[in-house]
Write a structure and sequence with these properties.
The protein is α+β, with helices and mostly antiparallel strands. It is 21% helix and 29% strand. The protein has 6 helices and 11 strands. The protein is globular and about 55 Å long.
Length: 234
């Protein structure tokens, strides 16, 4: 919380970005996405990418559920970070995975939302001067084999805006092997040479959630173990 860090909401410079990230963070397609994906053209399993794009134009990121991000629970914890990043930098965050979340065969969910405010190039069709992305330690999006992407906008669609939103779910018993925690990287790439030195502010929200039947209080476990400051490497 801001109060615990000695920061008041009035002095929180990236409050607008954090609000934007959290509004999207609680959103998902749900049953509406499944229904539209089954009925929207073009039909066929090989046309899923075009069909997903059509559904995205109609649903966006889905219906927001604000209460999921403004309050925690014993089986859910939401973390929020903010910083500035420049071209070809990678900010590394390590999120501790509670034991109960690893061993459980209940549905586990990891939600990641990144919102940023890039400089603008008014005379270019690629007017967003800097693009940000959420990646794993190999520069991809394969964060953990124990979870996989659910029905939602395709990751490539983030290139049309300034928000990246991923929901990963799974219930298999795939072990989580990295003792340092879940690697979540924020990566920056300038679209124009003029913006390679620009500092781009961003806000990152991450939620870990597991079935309510799991006995471990993952909110308390993560709060005890978390280290809120990122390490930066070029």
């Amino acid at each position: 919380m801001l109060a615990e860090d000695g920061v008041s909401l009035r002095d929180f410079k990236r409050a607008a970005l954090a609000t934007k990230a959290l509004l999207v963070h609680g959103s998902q397609w749900g049953d509406a996405g499944t229904l539209l994906d089954a009925s929207y053209p073009p039909p066929g399993t090989k046309q899923w990418r075009r069909r997903r794009a059509t559904v995205t134009k109609f649903l966006g990121y889905g219906k927001p559920t604000v209460e999921r991000v403004i309050s925690g629970a014993v089986n859910r914890v939401t973390l929020l970070a903010d910083d500035e990043i420049s071209h070809e930098q990678l900010h590394e965050y390590r999120i501790p995975i509670p034991t109960g979340m690893i061993r459980s065969r209940e549905i586990r969910r990891i939600t990641m939302t990144l919102a940023w405010l890039p400089p603008i190039h008014p005379t270019s069709i690629a007017y967003r001067g800097v693009m940000l992305d959420v990646v794993d330690q190999d520069g991809k999006r394969k964060f953990w084999r124990g979870v996989k992407t659910i029905m939602q906008p395709h990751p490539d669609d983030i290139r049309r805006g300034t928000v990246a939103h991923f929901i990963l779910e799974g219930s298999n018993s795939t072990a989580f092997m990295d003792s340092s925690g879940l690697f979540i990287g924020v990566q920056a790439r300038a679209n124009h040479r003029n913006f390679q030195q620009a500092a781009v502010p961003y806000a990152l929200a991450v939620t870990l959630e597991v079935g309510a039947t799991v006995r471990e209080d993952i909110y308390a476990s993560v709060r005890e173990a978390i280290r809120p400051r990122p390490r930066v490497r070029a």
